[in-house]
Design goal:
With 194 residues, this protein is α/β, with parallel strands linked by helices. It has 2 domains: 3-58, Orthogonal Bundle (Multidrug-efflux Transporter Regulator, Chain: A, Domain 2), CATH 1.10.1660.10; 69-193, Rossmann fold, CATH 3.40.50.2300. The chain contains 9 helices and 8 strands. Helix 6 (100-110) packs parallel to helix 7 (126-134).
C-alpha cells in the first residue's frame, strides 16, 4: 500500500464509512476515530483506523455494510408507500405496518433501529404502541419518531411523555424528516457505544 492510499481525508473516510462529513468530523473531534494533522493543517485518518471502525460498527457478518431498519406504522397506505420508496432510495431497509397490533409483531421480529409512528389509528393507537415499546427492555434501543396528521400541543406532550424520541407533523418536508431520522439514528449509535 502506498503512502497516499494509507491515509484518508475526512471526506474520503466519511464516504468509505457511508456517513456524511459532519459525522466523521464529530467522530474525529470526539476521538472515536484517531487522526493526525498534516503540516498544512489537514486531518488525516489511516486506512487501518477506518477499517477498524467499519469492523466494529458498520459491517454485517457477511462483510456488507449494515442497513438501518426503519418500521413505518401508519394506517394510510399512500403514506406508507411514499415513505418506503423514498427511504429505500436512501439505502434504509424499510418495513411497514398498517396498525398498532401489526406494529407490535413486527417490532419484536425485526427490532428496527427506528420507528416512524402515526398516532391516530384504529385499535391500538400510536400512544399505546410507543408506551409498550419504551417499557420493553428488549427494545430499549429502538428510536421512535412520531409523525402525525393531528399535530396539537396536547398530542405532542402526551407522545413525549409516552417515550417518543421525536415528533413531526405529517406535512413536514422530506429533507427535514430525513434530518430527524439521521439525528435519531446517530443518537442511538452513540447511546449504544456508552
Amino acid at each position: 500500500m502506498t503512502d497516499q492510499q494509507a491515509f484518508l481525508s475526512i471526506p474520503a473516510a466519511a464516504e468509505k464509512c457511508g456517513v456524511d462529513r459532519r459525522t466523521m468530523w464529530r467522530w474525529v473531534k470526539s476521538r472515536k476515530v484517531p487522526s493526525f494533522v498534516t503540516p498544512g493543517g489537514h486531518h488525516r485518518i489511516t486506512s487501518a483506523d477506518v477499517d477498524r471502525l467499519l469492523g466494529q460498527s458498520r459491517l454485517s457478518a457477511a462483510g456488507q455494510p449494515k442497513q438501518k431498519t426503519i418500521l413505518i406504522v401508519d394506517d394510510d397506505a399512500q403514506v406508507r408507500e411514499l415513505l418506503k420508496r423514498r427511504l429505500r432510495r436512501r439505502q434504509f431497509r424499510v418495513e411497514t405496518a398498517a396498525d398498532g397490533f401489526s406494529a407490535g409483531m413486527r417490532v419484536r421480529e425485526r427490532r428496527p433501529d427506528l420507528i416512524i409512528l402515526d398516532l391516530i389509528m384504529e385499535g391500538i393507537d400510536g400512544f399505546e404502541v410507543c408506551r409498550k415499546i419504551k417499557t420493553d427492555p428488549y427494545l430499549k434501543d429502538t428510536r421512535i419518531l412520531i409523525m402525525t396528521g393531528f399535530d396539537t400541543p396536547a398530542h405532542r406532550a402526551r407522545a413525549m411523555r409516552e417515550g417518543a424520541d421525536g415528533y413531526v407533523a405529517k406535512h413536514v418536508d422530506f429533507n427535514i424528516l430525513l434530518a430527524y431520522i439521521e439525528a435519531l439514528l446517530e443518537n442511538r449509535e452513540e447511546t449504544a457505544r456508552q
